[in-house]
Amino acid sequence: MEHRPPIRIAVSGCLLGEEVRYDGGHRRSETVAGALGEAFELVSECPEVGIGLGVPRPKIRLEREPRGTRLLGSRGEDLTPLMDDYSRQAAARFDEARVGGIVLKSRSPSCGMGDVKLHESGAVISEDGTGIFASRLAAALPEAPRISETELDNPARRDHWLTRVFALAEIRELAAGSPDARTLYEFHARWKMVLMAHSEGTARRLGRFLAAARDVRDALPRYRNEFLAGLAEPASAGTHHNVLLHLAGHLGKPLDPAARTRLGDEIAAFRARETPLAVPVRSLAAWAARLGVRSLGNQAYLAERPRSLAYREGIYRD
Prior knowledge:
Layout (H helix, E strand, L loop, with lengths): L7 E5 L17 H10 L1 E5 L1 H4 L10 E5 L2 E5 L7 H17 L2 E6 L11 E5 L2 E7 L2 H9 L5 E3 L6 H22 L4 H18 L1 H13 L3 H16 L5 H13 L7 H15 L6 H14 L27
Parallel strand pairs: 1-2, 1-5, 3-6, 5-8
Antiparallel strand pairs: 3-4, 6-7
Helix pairs in contact: 3-4, 5-6, 5-8, 6-7, 6-8, 6-9, 7-8, 9-10, 10-11
């Protein structure tokens, strides 16, 4: 595995066991504090404490009004301007710290994403609101992938988020190194199969774009934007299946018939949602190394990732 500086991940402080919730408690997540903490550098954040609310404190809520969704205190005071200002400051800090991903507390009126109770005239009208802090971060830091602690329990969503985190870290490193045309093309070759699983059209379009590009300084910003946008599209078991078959084809004739059959069975079992993606991926990586298949040697799709993350270790659900 390649050794790089740890990726920084901004995390709602309550998920790390910090007693910052409205009731004075926490919601420590072992997945976040334990598994992610082993692989990444975690940056704690609590926007409600950040805007000056105490611990413990009265509950706050999202309220739908003619002027838009507002964040209100227990006495109806409008906390939105305070949260707007704080969100801008937090986004600037995260950007300066090169935060590569964000994990936010679900169902929180400040941090929740699409699962927050939304009120109107004091009554709950839906439970699909997005917290003010979360929405402002999304607008200010569109590149940084966001996820809640509950979504981390979904194997496909967790893997998608982690893929985007790894990709953002590498393309930032690439841009910082003032790449030449060859370096950018090699980056694309490394990530092409990952991109194919998420957006085949983007992968092919960027390949043509690089082939025609004359100036890397002009090409890199567009490449970066389209690359990250393509990875933002979810992959499926079907698209992963197609990539696995493509990679298996690179092993060629040196792979003996019995091994080829076993590998095919593993790929089929993944497609049937009977085994995790990690099983055929590890087999492909092992055979590529054993047979010295250079075209697969540096593939991001086959890269080893920290085991604590359980990357691709869960069976995808429909």
